[in-house]
TrEMBL record, chain A:
Signal peptide: none annotated. One of its GO terms (molecular function) is electron transfer activity. This is Ferredoxin. The keyword S-adenosyl-L-methionine does not apply. The lineage of its organism: Bacteria, Bacillati, Actinomycetota, Actinomycetes, Kitasatosporales. Keywords: 3Fe-4S, Electron transport, Iron, Iron-sulfur, Metal-binding, Transport. Its cofactor is [3Fe-4S] cluster. Ferredoxins are iron-sulfur proteins that transfer electrons in a wide variety of metabolic reactions. Gene3D superfamilies: 3.30.70.20. The keyword Phosphoprotein does not apply. It comes from Streptomyces griseoluteus. It holds the Pfam family Fer4_13. SUPFAM superfamilies: 4Fe-4S ferredoxins (SSF54862).
UniProtKB/TrEMBL annotation, chain B:
This is FAD-dependent oxidoreductase. Keywords: FAD, Flavoprotein, Oxidoreductase. Residues 417-428 have a biased composition (Basic and acidic residues). GO terms for molecular function: oxidoreductase activity, acting on NAD(P)H. Pfam families: Pyr_redox_2, Reductase_C. Its cofactor is FAD.
Length: 86, 463
């Protein structure tokens, strides 16, 4: 499951940290830390957390059982040195 | 005819996106969501599908996430062709072709450029290549740095106390590592938030055991005979022994591949109109080339029509959505990119957030809480108006600040504090460094001149 939280929207109310504590945790009083790549067994908890977020800041892909992530084919075989050749 | 073209484009046109990261992905999703059924190609030089960068200096270093797994969730099916692991090397504006470094060419009817920025490397190449010297921008950078820090380090030196550098220093302290931070200005975050708030950030560093050195520059990195970094030389002639150095000197815009293309692209980014259409080098707007994200700079009506470059996550998302919308709609349906600048950072357990353009402000007022408690709301004023807000552990106030900015609310604020505190009663100079001096701190750059002083009635975009 892939997760991203729009931390501009997030108000730090911690509902997600309460509902899926292995994925979302508060760091200090209101900063949210989360794992963007949650384990499959967290699915139900993450679904509850995303639904409970009062500002709808949590986006999840792969929330539904059997919903495959669209495959991405990497075309170029030869790896390029990212900082050169620009 | 124009309408016919847009209809045709939406049905069977070819759209190419260069830069397959946050802005590129969100634009691709928006194109499909708004009914584009033609062919969609994403070109990215990193051999990875789009991943999120903010966790790399936070959750990843703190052991909460893997540097290999910050892939961005997709909001919908894309049905796109991905060309990953190969950079775009040139652009033929008249032939409407992107040239790839492997010699291939990709033709487009409309192009979106979202090539972002890269970390500014340590300027002395031999020193930058020493083992133990890192930058932090990409997944590969993050993997390398995280592995090294996990293996243990005697001392980490962070060069540059902007947001990224401060976050790295904070995470290292949490990992129990000794950290020295070297900053040219008088305090961390001054380029982004000014000296008053910078002083609060400096206290956070010191309280958390960071050896903070301000008003110094790094003059040299010294290696041992094995090519590993051994020490860092500072302008005050002190020498700090270190086995890890994190260079956090801001970023460079990825526009070199466009040189000679005729597009208005350079070290300050790619200029566009408020509708995300790129300018050519003559300052004439193009019809088929759009820009979004960290690489773009565009005029903002709320901030004197200055061209803003915003290295902000939220800007990349909003600008990508607007660019994508404008790419496939008729002229009368175009929207301006009028996103309210906003960002967050968390360091030393404190949630720092901002809206508006702090570096535009010359005065600051604390309207709630107190800097001594590291829990406050500050607003920045410019020419009698509120232009920005900042909160430390007070995110709930940000919306209020945003409304004040949108309404052009007066500054100084009438009733300064709700819970009256001495420092809240008066506006003080925000204390930004001289903009003509080089800094690496700010992630917002005012890079233009206002064509008009008229204020437009501000209507936020539909995000
Ligand atoms: C460590 C870190 C922490 C951050 N934390 C925050 C935060 O807390 N809050 C916040 O608001 N923002 C934060 N940001 C900034 C945020 O990540 C960026 O604003 C965002 O990534 C911008 O997205 P983008 O798609 O415009 O550009 P980028 O993410 O830079 O993507 C551009 C892509 O284009 C590729 N590319 C470049 N040249 C070429 C070429 N010629 N051909 C093909 N591909 C090319 C690049 O390799 C890259 O993959 C952080 C950034 C970093 C690095
Ligand atoms: S529930 Fe939403 S607002 Fe609350 S901490 Fe989680 S993401 Fe933030």
């Amino acid at each position: 499951m892939r997760i991203v939280v729009d931390l501009n929207k997030c108000q730090g109310y911690a509902q997600c940290a309460f509902l899926a504590p292995d994925v979302f945790t508060m760091h200090g009083e209101e900063a949210l830390l989360y794992n963007p790549h949650a384990a499959e067994e967290e699915r139900a908890a993450v679904a509850r957390a995303a639904a409970a977020c009062p500002v709808q800041a949590i986006t999840v892909e792969g929330l539904h059982e059997g919903a495959p992530v669209e495959p991405v084919q990497v075309f170029s075989g030869a790896p390029w040195e990212p900082r050169d050749g620009r | 005819m124009a309408a016919d073209y847009v209809d045709w484009l939406r049905r069977e046109g070819r759209i190419v996106i260069v830069g397959a990261s946050l802005a590129g992905l969100r634009a691709a999703e928006t194109l499909r969501a708004e009914g584009f059924t033609g062919s969609l190609t994403l070109i990215g030089d990193e051999p990875y599908e789009p991943y999120d960068r903010p966790p790399l200096s936070k959750a990843v270093l703190l052991g909460k996430a893997s540097p290999r797994h910050t892939e961005l969730p997709r909001r919908r099916h894309l049905d796109a062709e991905w060309r990953l692991g190969v950079p775009a090397a040139g652009l033929d504006l008249t032939g409407k072709r992107v040239l790839l470094a492997d010699g291939e060419e990709v033709e487009y009817d409309r192009l979106l450029i979202a090539t972002g920025v890269r970390a500014r490397p340590w300027p002395v190449a031999e020193e930058a290549e020493l083992d133990g010297v890192f930058v932090l921008r990409t997944r590969d950078d993050s993997i390398a740095l995280t592995e090294r820090l996990r293996a243990g380090a005697k001392r980490v030196v962070v060069i540059g106390a902007g947001f990224a550098g401060s976050e790295v220093a904070s995470a290292c302290r949490e990992m129990g590592l000794e950290v020295t931070v070297a900053e040219r200005a008088g305090a961390p975050l001054v380029g982004a938030l000014g000296g008053v708030i910078g002083a609060v950030a400096a206290d956070l560093h010191l309280e958390n055991g960071v050896d903070l050195r301000t008003h110094v520059t790094v003059t040299a990195l010294e290696g041992d005979p094995m090519g590993r970094v051994r020490s860092v030389h500072l302008s005050d002639e002190s020498v700090v022994e270190a086995d890890v150095v994190v260079v956090s000197l801001g970023s460079l815009r990825n526009t070199e591949w466009l040189s000679g293309s005729g597009l208005g692209a350079g070290p300050r980014g790619i200029a566009s109109d408020a509708g995300c259409r790129a300018f050519d080098f003559r300052g004439i707007v193009t019809d088929d080339v759009f820009v979004a994200g960290d690489v773009a700079r565009s005029p903002h009506a709320l901030f004197g029509y200055q061209f803003l470059s915003l290295e902000h996550w939220g800007n990349a998302v909003a600008q990508a959505e607007t660019a994508a919308h404008n790419m496939i709609c008729s002229a009368s349906d175009r929207r301006p990119h009028m996103w309210m600048p906003a960002f967050w950072s968390s360091q030393f357990g404190v949630n720092i957030k901002s809206v508006g353009v702090p570096p535009m402000g010359d005065e600051l007022m604390i309207i709630q809480g107190s800097t001594a408690e590291r829990r406050f709301v500050g607003v920045y004023g410019y020419k009698g108006r509120i232009v920005a807000g900042v909160t430390f552990d007070n995110a709930r106030w940000l919306e209020y600040c945003q409304r004040q900015i949108e309404q052009g609310a007066p500054f100084p604020v009438e009733y300064p504090t709700v819970d009256r505190r001495p420092e809240g009663r008066k506006a003080v100079p925000a204390d930004f460094p001289d903009p003509s001096l080089p800094t690496h701190g700010p992630t917002v750059t005012l890079s233009g001149y206002s064509p008009a002083d008229r204020r437009l009635v501000f209507t936020p975009g539909h995000h």
